[in-house]
Design goal:
6 helices; elongated; mainly alpha
Length: 174
């Protein structure tokens, strides 16, 4: 009881400096400071978990993308044979495939970014009760990387499709 009475009598002196927004500093209770430190530690842990899950999702998405592009190789062979039979040149077929993979990567990136931004906003607004701030640079980088990877994987999986005659291609793949 003596310690509590002593704290009450000297309560204004028994505290710590607490930072506030805008660079201001206020005098506060030590308990308040400990609570803030615990909250910051929890937020650091939540941030780590979210980043780890994001990395896992990116790796999983890349595996799915590679699988989808490679599994569509038979369809690309059929399209290539049909276009070459109709008189398309190798360059035209390569341009068509490049444009197809460009749009595929673009729409995949836009869809993924939309869902990521929407879920980030929802987490910050409803769970953390903070203002959502989005930086444009990482969004543009992710968009370019996904489009570039999709085009690269598509080009690698489609290589050699236009080098053989159409009939030979059909015989080899069927």
């Amino acid at each position: 009881a003596g310690a509590a009475a002593e704290r009450e009598r000297h309560g204004a002196l028994d505290g710590v400096l607490l930072p506030r927004e805008g660079g201001a500093v206020v005098w506060g209770d030590r308990g308040q400071s400990r609570c803030r430190l615990r909250r910051d530690a929890v937020l650091d842990n939540v941030t780590f978990v979210i980043r780890t899950m994001a990395l896992f999702s990116i790796i999983t998405g890349l595996v799915v993308l590679v699988g989808a592009v490679i599994s569509s190789r038979y369809q690309r062979i059929r399209e290539s044979v049909l276009l070459r039979t109709l008189g398309a040149s190798r360059i035209q077929i390569r341009k068509i495939m490049a444009i197809e993979y460009l749009f595929l990567g673009f729409f995949a990136a836009v869809t993924g970014l939309f869902l990521a931004i929407l879920s980030s906003w929802a987490l910050s607004y409803f769970f953390f009760e903070t203002e959502f701030v989005m930086e444009l640079q990482p969004v543009v980088i992710v968009l370019c990387v996904v489009v570039g990877l999709t085009m690269l994987i598509g080009a690698v999986s489609s290589r050699g499709l236009t080098n053989r005659p159409p009939l030979e291609s059909l015989r080899a793949e069927v």
